[in-house]
Amino acid sequence: VLEPVLPAPAEEQNGTDGAKAPKVNCEERNATGIDRFTLQILNVSQDLMEFLNPNSSDCTLVLFYTPWCRFSASLAPHFNSLPRAFPTLRFLALDASQHSSLSTRFGTVAVPNILLFQGAKPMARFNHTDRTLDTLKDFIFNQTGIEAKSDVSVTEEDWEGPLPSVLTKGIDWLLLFSVLFLAGFVMYATIRTDSIRWLIPGQEHEHQE
């Protein structure tokens, strides 16, 4: 079952407008004593819902990506820099091919896909085709009213990780299975159609004539 996700309104996607009330009232975490603000990547055995507190109003930006998607790779350094720009928010990323149930649950049929959660509830989806640090900052500000630190930019370290910016070779097994299943179904339907046609009275004589 797909959970409802409110899309970011088109009029709020471009630029920042301080006069508009934030769509999501986030509880900002206490960043005192934290020396390094970084993105956390979930491995195949970790469940996203374990990192989201349903009883809290804190906000988390979650990225669904795949390591062989060139759009995910180009987004990586910009997303890696976000925790420094918004130290009071949390940032997570997960390989959608390893968490297919979550991808289905939240309707992330394409990658990269970015969702803003409040607690464990998805509140907004990032709909920009231009995925840069500036557009990500604008999206977060328009949704939460939280301003980014002005001195944060994409650095060389952001290109190195934690989210990979270099494509890795891999096979989309889900896509391959879907194609094989569809091809098999078409072949089976074709064979069954021919078999049924020969069983219909009159069809054989018509064919011979």
TrEMBL record:
Domain of life: Eukaryota
Region feature Disordered, mapped onto this chain: 1-22
Spans through the membrane: 173-191
Top-level taxonomy: Eukaryota, Metazoa, Chordata, Craniata, Vertebrata
Gene from which the chain derives: Txndc15
PROSITE patterns: THIOREDOXIN_2
Chain ranges of the Thioredoxin domain: 2-145
GO annotation, biological process: cilium assembly
Protein's UniProt name: TXD15 protein
Cross-referenced Pfam families: Thioredoxin
Key word Transmembrane helix present: yes
PANTHER family named in the record: THIOREDOXIN DOMAIN-CONTAINING PROTEIN 15 (PTHR14684:SF2)
